[in-house]
Amino acid sequence: MLESNKKFVIFSHGATYDKLHQVGTLALTAAALGRDVYVILMFWAIKKLEMGRLDTIDFPPEYSAYTEDVARLLGEKKIPTITKMFSDARQVGTFHLIACSAGLEYMGVDSDKLIPLVDEILGLPAILSMTFDSETSLFI
Asked: Do the Cβ atoms of 54 and 20 come closer than 8 Å?
């Protein structure tokens, strides 16, 4: 039986593909399991979204030598992109993509550019107030 109205929150700070892939898979799975999913974009995740590069396959320098192999495997196995996972999460459940307003300032992102890409832009006090009662909170 699916449980509803339990919040599953992911604070997405990092923006390398490995981190964003985990955000996408966890968000999609939690939405499919009936959780209200909130992905809070911070720092580099905001910047990568603004640049239109959420689906760019990149890794930390120590793993960059494996980028081509991983990209090939992801394609062969038909693994969905980050944006597809976010879209699918909206289709199967409740999914909210929120950007932290301070992160926009820190990363030099114009809010007008980000407004069409997220559900809301909120300050940290509003984000924390909204997520205090979450069943699960992750920082990736």
From this structure: yes
Residue 1 has pLDDT above 50, yes or no: no
Phi, psi of 120 (to 5 degrees): -155, 155
Q: For 7-139, which CATH superfamily applies?
A: DsrEFH-like (3.40.1260.10)
- DSSP E strands, the chain: 7-12, 36-41, 94-100, 120-122, 136-139
Structure tokens at 75: 């394609």
Q: Residue 56: which pLDDT band, with cuts at 50, 70 and 90?
A: very high
What are the residue ranges spanned by the domains of the chain? 7-139
Starting at the edge strand found earlier in the chain, the sheet holding 7-12 runs 120-122, 94-100, 36-41, 7-12, 136-139
Q: How many helices (H) and strands (E) does the chain have?
A: 7, 5
What are the phi and psi torsion angles at 87 (to 5°)?
-65, -45
User: pTM, whole model, 2 decimals?
Assistant: 0.94
Mean pLDDT of the region 41-67: 96
The confidence score (pLDDT) of residue 124 equals 96
